[in-house]
Amino acid sequence: MSTGVDEVVVPDSGGGRLHRLRHRNATVWVTMLVASVASLVASFVLAVDALRLAENPNADLGCNINAVISCGTVAGAWQSQLLGFPNAFLGLVTEPVVITLAIASLGGVRFPRWFMAAAQAVYTIGLGFALWLFAQSTFVIGALCPWCLLVTVSTTLVFCSLTHVNVRDDNLYLPRALQARARAAVEADLDVLVVAVWLVLLATVVVARYGAALVG
Questions:
Q1: pTM: predicted TM-score of the whole model, two decimal places
Q2: The pLDDT value given to residue 129
Q3: Which CATH architecture fits 18-214?
Q4: 168-198 as b/e, with b when 16 or more CB fall inside 10 Å?
């Protein structure tokens, strides 16, 4: 890896100052840092709750609000311990790595191409796992955990930031034509549009599935 703060110069696609600000290294890495810290906090709370439930399955968790918003119901499902231990422990292990990556990059460290490509692959799996858990919670378990929803949102934001950097810096070993199209999409802020639409879609799914029961 090398050091030194390299400010990325991005062609102005017409968005002006806001466009340039969004593409600054500091903006991208701070977004990743804040999202990963939020995910770490949520993972810590979920891990504590999992230990409380292991000690007392009838423990009343603070986020057991009603029949739909119930961390206890979600935590008691087999999907919450897919690998034989609480899924939250995965967040306690992986999020500090993401936090370190973001802080080091803010400090000017530039990681090797292979490392960034590997990070993209691993976090893509993590995002897929988070979305699978969201689907299981929404359509199978029949209850929602606010902390789990926070993990889903923050994981999406970290994935977006990491993808932005890797496409911008040509770290993904993509075919030249595909890399050019991906870079053009990032420069046009289409990745932000996709993520915004995706998060709205997830919120819409929750509201459509549960409606007034969310506050009932």
A1: 0.87
A2: 94
A3: Up-down Bundle (1.20)
A4: beebbebeeeeeeebbeebbebebeeebeee
